[in-house]
Amino acid sequence: MAVAASPTADAKHNIQAARQAYYDKAAKFHMAPLWEVLKGLVTPEPKTRCQPALWKFDDVKSLILEAGDVITTEEAERRVLVLENPGLPGQSRVTHSLFAGIQLILPGEIADVHRHVASAIRFVLEGEGAYTAVEGEKALMNHGDFIITANWAPHDHGNPGKEPVMWLDVLDMPTINHFETSFAEHFEEKMQKTNHADGDSFDRYASGVLPDGSPAHLNRTPVINYPYAKMRPILQRLKNTGDIDKRHGARVRYANPVNGGPVLPTMGAYLALLPKGFKGEPYRSTDGMIFAVAEGTGTTIIDGQPFDWKVNDVFVVPPWKRYQHNAAEEAVLFSISDRPAQEALGIWREGN
Ligand code: 1HN
Q: Distance from the CA of 158 to the center of ligand 1, in angstroms?
């Protein structure tokens, strides 16, 4: 039986039509009604398109080595395969705020000196004999080394050794581009002069003394390289004394030795030992996390999904997604996120 439209349905239709006409009119003046979009803008919990993801080093390694056949470092400027978050395709983002990529440098190659506003870190995965030169210090790269390239620091890489060398690059580039503050420049020369030997800044600034007169406030660490060979025994000390966090394991935070602050204002990093058989308690925080496996094997449950990992795998936990680590054997996880930026803005939160 046909039913005549009720007056209420009619009235509703008229209201909608009147509103739409009003919105169309406002749009001509570059204005729009907040009440139509408010719920999407102010969500009761963090909303992200970033997805949990894992890159297996077996795949990464064979693909990046293949890049060595198709392009030189000179042609590419940097031979990097971008780790694209599956929820953020085509955006060169591993999380909403951070870039990650895998870089390969072959024996005999040089990646020319340049600098940019985006800060970078390198976490060395495989191969020996390469260096990265940062602000006049020549840092030799070995598995597990954590190397800082701060905002506007000149940096070039080279491989005078015999093996391909691969590392994880993480940059705050999406954050810099969010603020639309990117600058970059190249230099005349290919390589910067390095009058500081490997380890110079670590010994100068992280030995319990500071060069007299050095500033007490620095928003970035003066240390260029935090070598794995120096960090790993500290994890062992924490383990030996039972200083093992129920969520994170025996964990150290990479610190600015001048003031205890984060290594960079935009990115902070940790190194954690998970004892064999570790079953972490669930944890979540508003900073999306990038993990790289330095040692061991295990499984991390992210938002209910298991991700099995082994050495040199990289995986991502999106903001505010619950995760929980399990270690089949003793493992060491490196992690990095935008937590210092969130803390500086007073918006960082954690929970279980
Ligand atoms: C960069 O300068 C390097 O210097 C690596 O090794 C990755 C990704 C985006 C923009 C600049 C490097 C980069 C990058």
A: 14
In a domain, 25, yes or no: no
- Give the residue numbers spanning the domain of 92: 53-351
**217-242: per-residue pLDDT in tens?**
899 999 999 999 999 999 999 999 99
Question: Does some domain include residue 211?
Answer: yes
Tell whether the model's pLDDT for residue 135 goes beyond 80. Answer: yes
Q: Phi/psi at 186 (nearest 5 deg)?
A: -105, 160
The Cα–Cα gap between 8 and 12 comes to 6
Pairing status of strand 80-82 against strand 99-105: antiparallel
| Residue 293 DSSP SS3 | strand
Integer Cα distance of 310 and 297 in angstroms:
4
Strand partners for 331: 274
Ligand 1 pocket: which of 64, 77, 78 to mutate (most atoms within 8 A of CB): 78
pTM summary value: 0.96
Is 37 part of a structural domain of the chain? no
Task: Please name the residue whose Cα sits nearest to atom 7 of ligand 1.
Answer: 169
Cα 141 versus chain centre, distance: 19
- pLDDT at position 38 over 80: yes
In a domain, 9, yes or no: no
Mutate to test the pocket of ligand 1, among 132, 148, 159, 169 (most ligand atoms within 8 A of CB): 169
Q: CATH code at 193?
A: 2.60.120.10
Spatial separation of the C-alpha atoms in residues 311 and 328, rounded to whole Å? 13
Closest by CA to 187, choosing from 116, 131, 104, is: 116
Number of structural domains the chain divides into: 1
- Give 170 Cα–ligand 1 centroid separation in angstroms: 8
